[in-house]
Write a structure and sequence with these properties.
Layout (H helix, E strand, L loop, with lengths): L1 E9 L9 E9 L5 H11 L19 E4 L2 E4 L11 E5 L6 E3 L2 E2 L2 H9 L19 H11 L6 H4 L2 H5 L6 H11 L7 H8 L13 H5 L6 H20 L1
Parallel strand pairs: 1-5
Antiparallel strand pairs: 1-2, 3-4, 3-5, 6-7
Helix pairs in contact: 2-6, 3-6, 6-7, 6-9
């Protein structure tokens, strides 16, 4: 067992005017995760510490937070890979509800704008809508997004313009625009080509660095840009 110092940014907007830092010393086994340390603090030191968690296996994205200056999942961060002093903050760019819990309402609303579901009014086959391996490969990486919000939180464009769709929503648009089974190409593409949409991405790559699933988000957005340009010239030649 080894002692780690957790320095956590605490804030309750309903009762406080500004955030405060609080430190905790925690005994940790090298194979435990950062999330385990937060649970120990809540169970044994301060029950008012507030954070999100659910699956604890990197699937739900609930425990996304800023860890030593970088966005990540607390459940995927092994304590053996961390220094003895660990600084933890809520994800940037989202309103803080309490401590490490942020308001994701706007984030999910942006996703809804791009119609994040399959649209196909054709008569369905008896079993399933098939696609080739090559067609499936085009969207395979984008499907692994867990909507944790780390990418959008790390985006400088979103910091300055909260109306910007953000990398997560654009990635979701890619996932369905390039899905061979979908039939809403024109409508969905139209929903991302506007002043706060596709062309507001400046390919800074912060989203790629922040993604806990190592998705090349900027690469996918670049493919959307290429598609949008090709579609424009196709319609106007």
């Amino acid at each position: 067992m080894k002692t780690y110092n957790f320095k956590i940014k605490r804030f309750n907007p309903s009762e406080e005017s500004s955030p405060q830092w609080q430190e905790f010393s925690v005994q940790m086994d090298p194979m435990e995760r950062l999330l385990d340390g937060l649970i120990k603090i809540k169970d044994n030191s301060d029950g008012t510490l507030t954070f999100r968690r659910s699956c604890a296996h990197g699937i739900c994205g609930s425990c996304a937070m800023k860890i030593n200056g970088k966005n990540g999942l607390a459940c995927q961060t092994l304590i053996k890979n961390m220094p003895e002093r660990i600084t933890i903050e809520p994800l940037a760019a989202y309103p803080v509800i309490k401590d490490l819990v942020v308001d994701m309402t706007q984030f999910f609303m942006k996703s809804e704008e791009v119609l994040p579901y399959l649209i196909n009014a054709e008569t369905p086959p008896e079993r399933e809508r098939l696609q080739s391996k090559d067609e499936q490969q085009k969207i395979l990486e984008s499907i692994t997004c867990i909507m944790c919000g780390s990418c959008t939180s790390s985006c400088p464009t979103y910091w300055s313009d909260k109306e910007y769709l953000g990398p997560a929503a654009l990635l979701k648009a890619y996932r369905f625009i390039f899905d061979s089974r979908d039939r809403a190409f024109d409508e969905r593409l139209g929903r991302i080509i506007h002043a706060q949409g596709l062309w507001r991405c400046h390919s800074i790559y912060n989203c790629v660095e922040a993604c806990p699933k190592e998705i090349d988000i900027t690469g996918h957005i670049t493919e959307l840009k290429r598609l949008a340009v090709k579609n424009f010239f196709k319609r106007n030649k």
